[in-house]
Amino acid sequence: MTDIVRPTAPPDGMLILFARRFADHRLALASLVVLLALALLAAAAPAAEWLLGVSANSVNLTIRFAPPSLAHPFGTDELGRDLLVRLLYGGRISLAVGIAAALASAVIGTIIGLLAGYYGGKLDALLMRLTDGVIALPLLPLLIVLAAVDLTKIGLPAELARDPDVSLYRMVVIIALVSWTTVARLVRGATLSVREREFVLAAAACGAGPLRIMAVHILPNVVSPIIVATTLSVGNVILLESVLSFLGLGIQPPIASWGNMLTGAQELIWSAPQLVFWPGALIFATVIAFNFLGDGMQDALDPRAITR
Question: pTM for the complete prediction?
């Protein structure tokens, strides 16, 4: 009886090749350094709060719009709160929403793409028409409507609906529900190609069920486009969260995010431009960095790239 040839795990040389290709993409490498620095600074927000002896949410109207100093390196905002500490805490929220929503979108899109690509037929047609319908929806107006829904009208207790943390979770859920379409279409296309490979047919002949085939044999071979699409989507998610927070429909005070910090400063752009500059610059840098990082990973994972 002929032995069945099973797909082997990628050799260490593939990881070395990926690292070498990624290192050749200077903008992607610099973007990774910037993102790691931002993440470390955001993680260090409580330490900065302790070192400066301030509180991110404590109001002190006697030091409104204070200039930069040793006590307040970036100055204070319109309520006398330390701007640096609030930027660090805002980074924790904006990065958390961006990464969590992007990962949730990737999970939803991967499941739908795998099911559509593996089973094909009517299920494929149904899921792809659903995907096309979501893509056709006007994204920003839809997000505004969903974010403005009164949670008490859908059965959530009033006390819980007023909890500031709920706005964070709602933002992740809302963005994830409309951002999975790109991953779904990429995974479907890759699955259609992989499902006809010899090792998938051999696994089916050995009696492996559809779930095992999709999870063990197909998914590892379509993970590259998932990683790239997820990385690219993080920047878009952060931008969407910032837009909704700027409109007053996203993360609600006293929780700080870069978007709602812009909201509080929009009427002070001429009298206190630093309150607009810093959160806007951080949003811009983060979105651009994630886009360059996604481009670098796409080039590094491209099997058609010339081997160096």
Answer: 0.83
